[in-house]
Design goal:
The chain is α/β, with parallel strands linked by helices. It is built from 27 helices and 32 strands.
């Protein structure tokens, strides 16, 4: 029911208890004209007179029995301790159609009071609790917008009247609140933790310090956090007295848990146990973001979506000339994941630099915090992991939520299959649809008891405390995630062999090696013997070659350019972009090639060159799959025709990258034809400096499309406007700044 539908349904509303909450409710009703008459009831005449004088109520009544006669709705907003008395007084005078609701901060005691007074909770009684308020009290403190954008919890009993619920819900929504339904016992538990315990602590701390000899100084220099405590402790004592008594059991339970945690922390401070202290502080620091992520069932960073906000960000590119300089682009995502996983089960402290603070890797990092690993950071790409050893992980407090990250779920499925405790892996809506049978099936062959949903999707429920036996597994599909999952499980089995049908990324094997694990690779086969200890190390995560690709093409197509891309990961399973550009005649050289934590890394020097069109060898397609959007820009600047085949996977990426790129190239004056599995591009060549005409491009929220067309501006005759670019931040947050730094004339516009 909407506010408009409420119109005419409520004639008389009675408010019993005309203080902050009752007064605000009354003001809201009157301001939005939600009923014909608001009648106020309070203990004292002076409150009622004030209510009338302020225009908060239309009429005042001191006699409760008279007040409720003919009422359509009665709102109880006096201290909860008075609920039973007031209900007994008004019960005989309520009419059959009268809806009763309340605002009490504890719900179990209110429901019990209704049962004692009426025999059972009346179907027209809808208990409620607005999660809004302040330390002020009294009718004068109320405002009509007190509930705006706040939650109101309603706890209707079984068999409640749906009509009564819809009226109460519509009233709160008309006041701007968000209504949430919950059982009354669950409500009291949640509120004991989030509101009642913090108030108890504030009262106790402020009172303890007020009794201290130095109390004058303490209060004189009070700042920051202590001010918040004193603010909370200024809440109405009678109300809180009532609340603690009414919610005694749940509050004491929370207090006991807190007391235990506090005494552990005390001991850590006393004994100088840094790891214990950092564990508490880092978990607490991350908790707010983590839990809001879970409760909203969203990804750690917003995924590709077409939200209105994201459609508003556009890139504006002025025609550029050349690019020059040195750059270090963000860290590799696959390696960021693995640094957390292996660092956590290693012996000692692992130091990570260049960690990509993106969606997937953050999901993995939080999961290991939940598994009892102390992890500091990330701060500017730096992470410190206090490894717990192969058998040191501990049971998480609840299900492990992995956001949008399929990599995290598949890799962790392997590692957690071998732990002493059971665990359930969950994710957001999109991850919950992804296939997990590909990891669950071979894990079952290793002896793991693991359940998925019927169609093989998450959640993954792993039984724990199982003995794993090694297997030799021929993967039906080429998947680095499946291979990595089995190798991580294999750390706990005798001997595990994985055979792959085609080359896949080998970051796990390389990093295991970097952590001192010996692993045998022979052709398409990799074998690992379990029980080996991982030794902590330092990992300087290579820059992501997929992000570096934009600048490789930029320097190649813009005459007179030279760029040095530092510390780029050049794992041969990822270097298709370099191979293809070189086949097109690009001038790319790898300098200072070195091994970093088992990964080959180099500084990549790119100078401009006259590119030529080629038929891209299909064997290179999987090795450059993410880099094709920007390779198409290179093809448009090359002499002759470039043909891509065997790349149908590009049609099911964040956008249909074949069609979206073809449309964009055509919009910029290029002859480009999409084919079912690729594209044919007639390059304009090197004679004319201007290849693209300028114009407007729709990126369809695909970050790589947006960045690819930004590079095209270097050879454009006119301005290029690229729409819907906010998602660039999820894979390459510093793209605009780095592009500007080397000479691309890019600016961001909110439209
Ligand atoms: P308040 O400002 O102190 O007002 C309480 C009102 O109740 C006053 O008008 C008082 O009348 C009246 N009252 C007290 N005892 C009464 C009795 N025996 N019979 C009739 N009226 C009586 O309190 P509030 O902050 O509005 O809180 C009201 C309710 O809302 C409480 O149940 C509380 O748990 C709940 N609540 C409060 C907050 C918050 O932040 N304040 C938030 C959510 C829910 P006089 O003025 O004549 O004394």
């Amino acid at each position: 029911m909407s506010a408009a539908e409420l119109n005419g349904r409520l004639s008389k509303v009675v408010i019993i208890g005309l203080g902050l909450i009752g007064g605000s409710f009354a003001r809201g009703l009157k301001q939005a004209a939600l009923c014909d008459q608001v009648v106020g009831c309070a203990r004292s005449i002076s409150t009622l007179e004030k209510g009338l004088a302020l225009g908060v109520i239309d009429a005042a009544e001191t006699d409760l029995t008279k007040a409720v006669q003919g009422a359509d709705l009665v709102f109880l907003s006096m201290p909860i301790g008075a609920t039973e008395n007031i209900l007994s007084v008004i019960a005989p005078h309520l009419e059959e159609h009268t809806i009763v609701t309340d605002a009490g901060s504890v719900k179990g005691c209110v429901v019990e009071a209704t049962q004692r007074v009426f025999g059972e909770t009346p179907l027209n009684f809808i208990p409620g609790h607005p999660i809004a308020g302040s330390e002020k009290s009294g009718v004068a403190a109320g405002t009509a917008d007190l509930f705006l954008h706040h939650k109101v919890i309603l706890t209707p009993v079984e068999n409640h009247s749906p009509h009564a619920l819809s009226i109460v819900r519509a009233l709160w929504e008309a006041l701007g609140a968000e209504v949430v339904l919950m059982g009354h016992l669950a409500h009291d538990k949640v509120l004991a933790a989030t509101s009642h315990l913090p108030h108890l602590l504030a009262y106790s701390l402020v009172d303890t310090l007020a009794k201290d000899d130095e109390n004058l100084d303490i209060f004189r220099y009070a700042a920051g956090g202590f001010r918040d405590f004193t603010r909370i402790a200024a809440s109405d004592p009678t109300m809180w007295h009532d609340i603690f008594l009414a919610n005694r059991t749940a509050t004491l339970e929370m207090l006991d848990g807190f007391t235990e945690g506090l005494s552990q922390l005390r001991e850590a401070v006393e004994t100088g146990n840094s790891q214990e202290m950092l564990g508490v502080f880092t978990r607490a620091q991350a908790a707010r973001g983590h839990f809001s992520t879970i409760s909203n069932q969203r990804a750690y960073l917003e995924p590709m979506s077409e939200s209105t906000n994201q459609q508003k960000t556009a890139f504006i590119l002025k025609p550029g000339k050349q690019v020059h300089g040195k750059l270090r682009v963000p860290g590799d995502k696959s390696i960021s994941h693995r640094s957390i996983i292996l660092g956590s089960i290693a012996e000692g402290e692992t130091h990570v630099e260049g960690f990509l603070e993106g969606e997937d890797a953050l999901a993995t990092l939080q999961a290991f915090r939940d598994l009892g690993v102390v992890i500091e950071g990330p701060h500017q790409g730096r992470v410190k992991i206090y490894g717990v050893g192969l058998n040191g992980l501990t049971a998480p407090p609840g299900d492990l939520y992995l956001g949008n990250s399929g990599t995290s779920m598949r890799l962790l499925a392997g590692l957690l299959s071998a732990q002493a405790f059971p665990v359930t892996l969950t994710g957001d809506e999109s991850l919950s649809k992804r296939p997990m049978g590909r990891v669950a099936n071979p894990l079952r062959e290793m002896g793991v008891k693991i359940d998925t949903a019927e169609d093989g999707s998450p959640p993954l429920k792993i039984k724990g405390a199982q003995n794993l036996s090694g297997i030799s597994y021929k993967m039906p599909m080429a998947s680095a995630q499946v291979k990595s999952c089995l190798l991580l499980a294999g750390l706990y089995a005798d001997s595990t062999t994985v055979i792959e049908p085609a080359v896949t990324r080998d970051h796990t094997e390389r990093m295991l090696h970097g952590f001192g694990v010996s692993i045998a690779q022979q052709g398409d086969m990799v074998t690992l013997k379990g029980g080996q200890t991982l030794k902590a190390c330092s990992i300087d995560i290579p820059a992501d070659i997929s992000s570096a690709a934009f600048f490789m093409v930029a320097a190649s197509i813009a005459p007179g350019s030279e760029i040095l891309l530092e510390h780029v990961g050049v794992n041969p399973t990822r270097t298709g972009i370099i191979d293809i550009l070189r086949l097109m005649g690009a001038d790319i050289s790898l300098q200072n090639t070195r091994d970093v934590g088992g990964e080959p890394v180099a500084d990549v020097l790119v100078r401009s060159a006259n590119l030529k069109g080629i038929d891209i060898p299909e064997r290179l397609v999987p090795l450059a799959i993410d880099e094709f959007p920007v390779l198409f820009v290179a093809a448009a600047c090359a002499d002759g025709t470039t043909r891509l085949t065997g790349a149908e996977e590009l049609r099911v990426k964040e956008s249909d990258r074949i069609q979206v790129m073809a449309d964009g190239l055509v919009a910029l004056g290029i002859d480009a034809n999409a084919t079912p599995d690729g594209i044919v591009i007639q390059g304009k060549g090197n004679k004319e400096p201007q290849v693209f005409t300028g114009g407007s491009i729709e990126s369809h929220g695909d970050h790589r499309i947006a960045m690819a067309f930004s590079v095209a501006s270097l050879r454009s005759g006119d301005e290029i406007c690229i729409e819907n670019c906010a998602n660039v931040a999820t894979s390459f947050p510093s793209f605009v700044l780095q592009a500007q730094k080397v000479g691309i004339q890019i600016s961001v516009k909110d439209i």
